Amino acid sequence: MEEHADDDAPHAAPPAAAPSLKMMQWNAQGLRPKKHQTLTPADFEWRIAGYTLHLLPATAEGTRGCVTLVRSSIPHRRIADPVHCGDGMETLALKLHVGGLSLPVYNLYRSQRHQLEAGELLTMASHTSLLVAGDLNAHHPILQSLGHMQEIFSTRCVAARPLSATNPTGRHLAVLLEEVPYIRLLNTGEPTHVREGRLDLTLVSGDLAAGTSWQVHPTLTSDHYATLTTVTVAPPERDLTAAIQRAADAAIPKSSPGRRHRPNWWFYNEDVREHNHRVNLHRKLHEKRPNPTNLRLLQDLVTRARQVSQRARGWMFERS
Question: In whole angstroms, how large is the CA radius of gyration of the chain?
Fold first, then answer.
């Protein structure tokens, strides 16, 4: 996590720019090869210059381990007694101070064997700013995580087992997102896993939502893609008219002029280009580290990219 503020001050003294907090969230293939979590013991020493490390170690009871790194210049402390989020849940919580904002940040991981209980945590957003991020292995239409691996596996297996469109954790989160008006899901629907899942979720309290952006990192990838969240700590709004105009611009879509399509415009379709980009990334990863896991991921991505291209091309022929 990093704090940023534009502090260019030539001759005049412009209004101080609002500070922002940048967070990268990544369920990488671990500090050890082919392991999705850190799997680090409590006495493990790991240093990155300029950052303070907070570790939730792996244990004999089956927890896999989480790490949160914070830029050392950001005032913060670890929350010794975080909100309980369910038996077996891995919860690492910090409180950061950015500008005038005191922000609890929760790093969560849920294995398939445990159930999330996020009611108490998410209702905190009714009275305090809050940021929650983690791989929760949750599936529900509201989360746009509908078991997308089924389509890929069905092309490679003779008898693919059908995947459920929802699971208990997904249904639990869906209810909370509908019933707790103070929390917002930032995910845009873009996959955070190479097999098209939306497993890595980022949620913020409503007071932060308007000044927060979320995106999938364009290059950092393992079996999960890294995501970037930028939280802007906005000063109090003084110009009511400008505030209303900005809110209207954000809420009301603007029409755009039609675009001319090339004869083979399907190849330049945004979805096709994105999947081809991921294939290229994983081809380079496999060339650098050839192993069965990376080969299998590359094969899955190639299969998915072909399906997306065929779908886009077929739609073009239907329209012509």
Answer: 22
